[in-house]
Amino acid sequence: MGQDFSDASSRSSFDDDDDDPEAALNPHGDDDDDTDNVAPLRLRRLPPRGEQDASSAVLLPGDGTIMSVYMMMHRIRRLVIAAIDDIYTLDELRAPHMDRQVVRPLVDRLYNPQDPAIVYCLVANRVQFLRPRSSEALHQGVHESRAILCELVATRILRRFREDHPGRPGLLLLANILVSGFDPCDAAPESVRSRRPQWAIQKRGGHERKLTALELAIISESKMLIKSPACQLVVDAVYKGVVVYTPLSFVDFLPDHYKHHPVSLYEPRRAPILNHHRLIVPQIRNAIELLHFAILLLLYMLTVAHYGLGADMEGLRLYETLFNVFAAGWVLEQFAAVVEHGWEVHAQNLWSFLDLTFVAIYGAYGFVRAVELLLFDDAYYALPVLCTAAPVLLTRIAFTLMPDNIVFIALHAMMRDFTRLTFIAVWCFAGFVVGLLFLARTSGEDSLNAGVTWATITKWLLWIWFGLDGTGIERSADFHLILGPTLIITFAFLGNTLFLTILVAILTNTFSKIISNEAAEIQFRRAVLTFQGVKSDAIFSYPPPFNMAALMILLPIKFLVGPLAFHRINVAAIRALNAPVLLLIGLWERRRVWARRAKSSRFRYWRYFAGLSPHGDIQAVFSSEPPPEIVDALEKMDALHDLATVDRELAAHSPKDLRAPPASAVRRRRTSNSSSIRRFEV
């Protein structure tokens, strides 16, 4: 059953293939790409979703039904709205009675081993329930409970997929569930399709307007779903490059969508030695981006250091030119990364606010430097602006080297709350500056009117805010004998007492929430880093500053030649520029496979010395699976399908005074086959 299901699960990625099963491995058949990089899995052809009618379902062998994405989304919405009509928390929904009455019936009703779009439809409904709507403000709490229920049911269904389908076919299936693209308007009525936003969309061979379940989980911050073992198995496989696929994006700077590689398992021995697709593997991509940032930091240090010396003007111009060229390419790469998946996803990255700050500083430096070159000859008024980027760049190195550090994760969330609250405080406290300025102009002393400006008043208030100086309090009577001290003292109470107390309380609450859910936060950030690492735009295959040259040269060529010719030109240019890196990656991946084989052969002889350990006999017993006759004899004595096991989620919420777990906290094993409990490692 597991093999048939994994084959059926691939239909969303292989809809455009021919009837030949081998066409799934090479959709276009040209020889300028890696055509033998997937595991030899034969995939059963199923009818594409787009060819189904909205009012009917496609019946498959095994009495399974595939429903269109549009119908499934509305079906889930109706069921969830009917099941939840009050406010519930996650712990309450996990309680045994709620699990027995609400969660498990929904899981049993929605789970279809032939349909991989169920998780996508559940997460899409969660996104819709979490969307704030002013017309339904009174029901927002109920909508949040329904969103939690959608995530909980999606987590259970994904876990059931993993339990029913182990091994490599199961990994391929889970990957299709989480990273294959689905069209929410699949088989929708024409009236719905006509209401879709009609902005310009780049053609991607029928894969336009598609989203993945993992992207929706990141947008809706479905941390319970992302931290589940099934999701982490796929995330880890995508991060290491075991699972490869063509990512979906909205807009590309340098689009090359002649080929669309479906979700597949990578085989280094069958891939070409210069496989340019390995440049978008998140693990490799992060190392390349770290190298690019290290070069940027080195050029920045050389430029600022020569500016500080002040004598070597020729060296300063040389390093400044190199820095400007490389930094412009790096900024283009960051801007393309924001456009790739949108700011909402990019903002989940830990160092996104640092990159945005550096881009702002570099833009200000570039503007001032351009004015200098136009009006002056040897002036360097812009370089002091560039010096202010040092704290940002050095801090960004720490964030990049330790992306899984819980302190940096908490700092990222706290910085967002701090920025929002500081903006509100500055906006509100600006009224005190205006009030004191008008008060000085109307009823202040003549000496005060002559020497006090809005900048002076702002400085006095800032010193009071930070507790550095009391000049503003001493001069408050000069504004007005009564109203001046009243405004200044009121500001001191609101700024030093109320604002700081609220700020500390909010940041403490944010930090405590993150620490209490540390594992989920780390896994969520890892999923974000993995999802952002897989790039669709060809511009990312060109290192800075060659990406600017590629944009200026190859983009006009795209409008002059056909898709196949442009694809071959693009691939040839990428392989030529990245030949040393691609060769190193290919040799390293092959050596890793050979080393694993050699290690297994060495341990084959080493196991004979296991008896030297006092525990060697115990290790020998459990080192391999028992023979089939032993398994059959054990199955006759104890049938696994009749054995009940306690669910950890529900057992944690069971009453403490019960000696046995309640019936709702127990689930039956859905298989008695020993293959269902075999271990699988990526």
Automatic annotation (TrEMBL):
Pfam families: LHD_TRPY1, YVC1_C. Keywords: Membrane, Transmembrane, Transmembrane helix. This is Calcium channel YVC1. Residues 1-39, 657-682 are annotated as: Disordered. Residues 293-590 form the Calcium channel YVC1-like C-terminal transmembrane domain. Residues 1-12, 672-682 have a biased composition (Low complexity). Coiled coil: none annotated. Signal peptide: none annotated. InterPro entries: LHD_YVC1, TRP_calcium_channel, YVC1_C. Residues 71-261 form the YVC1 N-terminal linker helical domain. The chain crosses the membrane at residues 290-309, 321-338, 350-368, 380-401, 421-440, 447-466, 486-507, 546-566, 572-589. It comes from the Eukaryota.
